[in-house]
Amino acid sequence: MADDNSRTPFSPRRRFHLDRLKGRKQSFKSNYRYNKRRVFEPSRFSHIFLLTKRILTILSLSFIVVGGMYLISFSSFFSIVTIQYFRDNTPVEIAPYAPLVEPYRGRNLIFLNTKEIKREITQQFGTTIESIVIDKKFPATLAFTHLPYPPVLNVRAQSKVNNETVQKRFVINANGVVIENDIEYPDLPFFSATIDTLPPIETQFLPQEITAKIAHAHELFVNTFGMKIIEIIYKEAAREIHLKTEKKFLVWIDLTQDIDRQINKLKRALPKLDMYTASLQYIDLRISGKNTERVIYRKR
Asked: What is the third-level CATH fold of 79-148?
């Protein structure tokens, strides 16, 4: 009969099997930790791969930078090929300043100094051009959009040339400069003056301040009284104008005084002075003396 102690967990045979099993478990854990370290630790080949990747990235960026610099600085890709002209956003074939800007064809559009070009145009054409905008349209187009001073007066001038009276018709803009010869705009008022010499085109005929006052007086009178002005007569020495109405009488206005005040004075006098039906020769609105509200007039 076998001894009962041989069946206990502490028997030699049982202890031997337990020790072998424990050794196998420890060996498995040790191998697992070793393999785990090998999986997550970078190898020498991974370092070579990262270094190669960085070198290729640097070379690619360098190629892009050098290529971009060549394209911008030396290539004809950004050379100006087309120059466009616009007058108040309307395309035109040519502009007055075209001879000044045409030499810029072939220049690099990126490095072009548009401020300097605008300054040159303003210096030479500032009396006829009110504003100008220069746009770069990449890759090779330069666009100019200018706004000219609007025409304001048809001028009928007469002058003495070799003891003979010479008459000339031309149009002046809001800056007082002659912009067209031998033409009249039917929508503009007619302005008459006697001058010493007839001005050539693109020269100053009237100071800008005087031109603005004349245009304002005409517009204010027409809008206030609804009466058409058929002619504006300029008295340069007296610094006044005579508005000749469709009723054939004249309205005298002093250009050195407030024009709005003179027109409003006539408006207040309408209940006593019915200029729409009365037969008048002239109405004097010039402000002088103590009683500046007095309206002087003369009947035919």
From this structure: Ubiquitin-like (UB roll) (3.10.20)
